[in-house]
Design brief:
Length: 116
């Protein structure tokens, strides 16, 4: 038997659950929306994204006792979230630079910068 593996979770998978008291529109960041029916649960992740789950699906969600975290662990968790945001910004900047380089390369090969 191999060594025990470390488990990881993305922070977007942590959600809060709120029961819809009446039929309610849930708005997504991309501008779309849908209706949460009375009694359904609205799951909201740490980025503010929402989705609707039924009461039957609630058993798939395990409560996380956040109050049991020490101050150091809370600081570490926030630090990891900040590092994730920085990594995302760096990744997006890299992809932008890569796309720009590809565009310029295509223009060079297609003669857009051809001198007469």
């Amino acid at each position: 038997m191999g060594a025990a593996k470390q488990l990881y979770v993305k922070r977007s998978h942590f959600v809060t659950l709120d029961e819809a008291k009446e039929n309610k529109q849930v708005h997504m960041k991309n501008g779309g929306s849908y209706t949460a029916l009375k009694g359904e649960l609205i799951a909201t992740n740490l980025e503010g994204d929402q989705m609707v789950i039924t009461q039957e699906q609630k058993d798939n969600y395990i409560p996380v006792p956040m109050t049991e975290l020490s101050d150091l662990k809370v600081k570490m968790a926030k630090g990891y979230m900040e590092m994730g945001d920085i990594n995302l910004e760096m990744s997006e900047a890299f992809h932008h630079a890569e796309n720009e380089a590809e565009t310029i390369t295509n223009r060079l090969f297609n003669g857009a910068y051809k001198e007469y």
